[in-house]
Amino acid sequence: MNLLQIFVLILPxxxxxxxxxxxxxxxxxMSAAGLAADPTICMKKTxxxxxxxxxxxxxxxxxxxxxxxxVFAIINHDxxxxxxxxxxxxxxVFAIINHDxxxxxxxxxxxxxxDEKNIEQMFKTSxxxxxxxxxxxxxxxxxxxxxIWDGVHAxxxxxxxxxxxxxxxxxxFGGAIATLAAMRTIARGFxxxxxxxxxxxxxxxxxxxxxxxxxxxxxxQKFRITHSGDPIVHIPxxxxxxxxxIEQMFKTSxxxxxxxxxxxxxxxxxxxxxVWDGVHAxxxxxxxxxxxxxxxxxxFGGAIATLAAMRTIARGFxxxxxxxxxxxxxxxxxxxxxxxxxxxxxxQKFRITHSGDPIVHMPxxxxxxxxxCSINEPNGPIHHGTEIxxxxxMKFGANYLKCTLKDEDENCANKKINQxxxxxxxxxxxxxx
Length: 433
Hints:
Strand content: 15-25%
Structural class: alpha/beta
CATH architecture of the largest domain: 3-Layer(aba) Sandwich
Largest sheet: 8 strands, mixed
Shape: globular
Number of domains: 2
């Protein structure tokens, strides 16, 4: 099941003092919602019978780490509660027209390299670019579509063709350009969704999850045809499926002091900096100061949620009893001093881990590069509490272990250090990233 297909058992939102499996599932839905083009869909499915509404959505792109960071918040005025979630990715064109049936077909072709390695190389310099508020796309496709848009515009904007249904089609890179041109046609208001059809063949990956969701939403009549063993449909390669690349990121991350709470990884410090203005606008709003606030996030989003919660306390916008923190598959955020600060400042916190998830063991500990960290290395990375460990498929009713106050409990995630599998990071509560 995809993360964005959130069909969970629903309970009303209740601030609890102990760990609650069902509440955790609700908040994981909210962590996943940050990846959606429209997070209100997840919100309404998760809290259908309570008065929640969206108050903030903000996305930032970190140039150094090449990551999109999304923060959004929902609010319940009746119960005076807020949830803040963090989620941390020369062509030719021709057209044919059927006047009798009022139909247009626009085709796109690109004279691209015919060698897989050369094509792969092209994406090493391709960067994410925002595309008409639909999400980020590969700059290589953005630039190619830019070059032919005038020709497309002349067709779709022609006054005598405005009522014509229009099919966009293309092969390989041409399919990517066809997708962008179809989406721009909708963005510019030249066609409504029901007047658009999209057929692509051997199309590479065009953009991020947000963009893919936008295409799925805006163009119901679309077909992406693939052929057995075609390598181009797997380009550019996924980054989230390679834990080695994530591990590599920590090699350049340095300790940074965080609001007198201890040192944290610079990668998380910089990512949290990118979204703080959006968080600040919520937690500092005078009419929300009495609202209890839950911070939640998955993977790197969990690390950012932790920092945002701690900064909220440091700045005096909430007292500890007004803060709740739920993270899922969170890596180690900071040193022992920072972990102790989190444990002290946020009593109501749960760090959910899943079996052999390798990301919760990153960055590696200082001593001997082992996965299980020790308090004997106070300047090394170590987890805050309270770990909730699921050593199963995480279905409803699945058993879990509430780990000890020793934040690197050997009976929890650390006991799986020889059985790590990235799939355990991708699946939480049976939802797949």
